[in-house]
Design a protein that fits this description.
This protein is α/β, with parallel strands linked by helices and 365 residues long. The protein contains nine helices and twelve strands. The strands form three sheets. The protein has a seven-stranded mixed sheet, with helices on both faces. The protein binds ligand 0PR.
């Protein structure tokens, strides 16, 4: 630490010089996060000091968390769903596997998931000492449900399906997975960290949620397509009290038990996430998703006229291309297979896509 503190002016001039080094969102085409909605920022600032880790001190904020879970439960066809606000998809996935492991105690537990699963599952399996049984995806980048059925055995504690994959924006055959899970009485976790705020608002929604009887838990991230402030994730459970299986004693807090992973938990992004849902409503969210999907289609069509083929026909707003380079200063990303990947988030406007296409065309002319 500095022995003598800085003046406020010097301090903030230092902070703003650091912030200037960050990439302007205008050029960020690689991110699954976006600029937070203004109502999320306003709500976040109102709840900065709140701590959901000791909810008895913040009953108003705790009620917002319950409301957020109820909103998501209703959106995902199960109003009575249990759950809580996490820090994002990684924590939700870790907690889902922790829950599955607690419910089915076997000596050598394994988890069956697609090769397209987000790397957070590697962290979860490492932390929880779970064997990861990776199932291939087909040419359409969707998990092969039959191959999943083949590797499931008596030690399988959880089957995982992805609704909106990180790299190719695909939805796994969740209906088929739900049938397998239901028949074998296996815990089915759906990672809809990205797709959970997209799929319900598509022109033709694809079944992926609690409407399918085999689905046990779902992860959705308001800090991705929900335009909340970071960190905002949600883990939902079909059984309202399912998470109580993870309870540990917290004798000196205002609540005597806790199932969360984090102890101290900010209520600010919870208020932010709820603010966006209630401000936009389903009509507003549908408009946002429709815009992002149109931009994705425009990008794919524009690249095709430049002779660049799409690497997949995505279900959600992630476009990938068989192509090895992109012009600076655009920040794109690359999949494990080496495909160019662009996520058409709400901050990626139509004119941004047109400018990118023009500069891409000039570079590849
Ligand atoms: N599940 C899926 C399907 C995801 O896509 C992600 C993250 C997670 C889980 C984990 O979520 P958290 O990162 O919130 O814990 N997907 C993005 C990715 O890894 C996250 C991201 C966002 C990365 C913005 C970069 C970035 O600039 O690509």
């Amino acid at each position: 630490m500095l022995s003598k503190g800085l003046s406020e002016e010097d301090l903030f001039s230092f902070l703003s010089s650091q912030k200037k080094e960050d990439i302007d969102h205008r050029y960020i085409l690689s991110s699954m996060c976006t600029l937070p909605h203004p109502v999320a920022v306003k709500a976040h600032c109102m709840f900065m000091e709140t701590n959901l880790g000791d909810p008895g001190l913040f009953p108003g904020t705790a009620a917002l968390e319950r409301l957020l879970i109820e909103r998501f439960g209703t959106l995902l066809h199960h109003k009575e769903a249990g759950g809580y606000a996490t820090s994002g998809g990684t924590e939700s996935n870790i907690q889902a596997l922790r829950l599955a492991k607690a419910i089915k105690p076997v000596t050598y537990p394994n988890v069956v998931l697609p090769e397209s699963a987000h790397f957070s599952f590697k962290k979860a399996c490492d932390l929880l000492s779970l064997e990861m049984r990776t199932v291939p995806t087909g040419p359409d980048h969707r998990m092969l449900a039959n191959a999943a059925a083949e590797v499931i055995d008596k030690n399988t504690i959880c089957l995982v399906g992805i609704a909106g994959t990180t790299e190719y924006g695909m939805i796994d055959p969740i209906e088929a997975l739900a049938k397998i899970a239901y028949q074998h009485d296996i815990f089915l976790h759906i990672d809809a960290a990205f797709g959970g705020m997209v799929i319900p608002f598509l022109e033709k929604p694809i079944p992926f949620d609690f409407a399918l009887p085999g689905v046990t838990t779902i992860a959705v991230d308001p800090h991705k397509m929900g335009m909340s402030t970071i960190p905002a994730g949600v883990l939902l459970t079909r059984e309202p009290d399912m998470l109580d299986t993870l309870n540990i004693d917290t004798p000196y807090l205002t609540v005597k038990k806790e199932f969360t992973l984090a102890g101290t938990r900010t209520g600010a992004p919870v208020a932010g996430a709820l603010a966006v849902l209630d401000y936009l409503g389903t009509d507003g969210m549908r408009a946002v998703v429709t815009g992002c999907m149109k931009n994705t289609q425009r990008l794919i069509a524009g690249m095709a006229t430049l002779g660049i083929a799409p690497a997949a026909t995505p279900d959600v707003n992630v476009a990938t291309f068989a192509c090895k380079s992109a012009p600076p200063p655009w920040k794109v990303s690359w999949t494990r297979n080496g495909d160019l990947r662009i996520v058409c988030m709400p901050h990626v406007h139509r004119d941004t896509i047109e400018t990118f296409l023009k500069e891409f065309g000039e570079m590849h002319a």
